[in-house]
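Lecture notes, continued. The same structure-token format from the folding unit now serves as the input rather than the output. Read the line below as a description of shape only.
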């Protein structure tokens, strides 16, 4: 009788252990299933966010490229109008070396630095446009086509700088645009009429070259940044 009771107790313990093992296995299987679902949801969410970010990047860049192409074309038209308004020797004016003109080349090793370089260059050209406009106001008649084109390109440049700034902030919200390395834009001292004509021609030609570089750079950035699968603020 005692042996039977012991056998029954042992059997009950084994059954309880088996039930506990089954419950534990079921729990682990359920936990593994939930974990797999969570991982799938995370991957899908990441893909959705990445696709949305890439679309936003592409849309902003497309708008920026559009205005860049417009400014590039108008800067080419402007230099022709400028030369036509300067009279004799106008073809030679742009070939003279002038100090303190922004470099048409874009600097930087990675996309954030190069986009920031475009922005700071645009800002650097604005005081020169103002100076050229003021000088040509004294040299041209009030209804001069040159003054109208200068105003238009000046305004477009401000708009493009705003687009570039928005584009930069959307891609790299944690990276403020650095200040220009050389500090505020330096303008040349007082100039005579000949020097003014030379200065204006060099400014506008350099700006046209810069806008050509901007067009190429933005197309290159589009392939490097807007199609990335990694977070674009990881630079």
């Amino acid at each position: 009788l005692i042996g039977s009771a012991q056998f029954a107790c042992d059997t009950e313990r084994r059954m309880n252990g088996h039930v506990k093992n089954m419950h534990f296995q079921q729990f682990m299987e359920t936990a593994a299933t939930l974990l797999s679902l969570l991982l799938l949801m995370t991957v899908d969410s990441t893909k959705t966010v990445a696709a949305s970010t890439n679309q936003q990047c592409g849309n902003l860049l497309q708008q920026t490229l559009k205005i860049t192409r417009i400014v590039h074309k108008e800067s080419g038209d402007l230099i022709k109008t400028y030369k036509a308004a300067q009279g004799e020797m106008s073809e030679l004016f742009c070939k003279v070396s002038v100090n303190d003109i922004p470099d048409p080349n874009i600097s930087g090793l990675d996309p954030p630095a190069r986009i920031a370089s475009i922005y700071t260059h645009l800002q650097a050209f604005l005081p020169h446009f103002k100076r050229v406009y003021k000088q040509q106001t004294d040299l041209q008649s009030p209804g001069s086509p040159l003054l109208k084109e200068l105003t238009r390109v000046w305004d477009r440049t401000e708009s493009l700088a705003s687009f570039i700034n928005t584009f930069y902030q959307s891609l790299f919200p944690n990276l403020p645009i650095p200040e220009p390395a050389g500090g505020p834009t330096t303008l040349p001292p007082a100039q005579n009429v000949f020097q003014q004509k030379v200065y204006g021609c060099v400014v506008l030609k350099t700006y046209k070259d810069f806008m050509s570089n901007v067009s190429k750079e933005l197309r290159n950035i589009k392939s490097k940044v807007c199609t990335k699968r990694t977070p674009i603020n990881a630079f």
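Point for the exam: The two ends are 80 Å apart (CA to CA).
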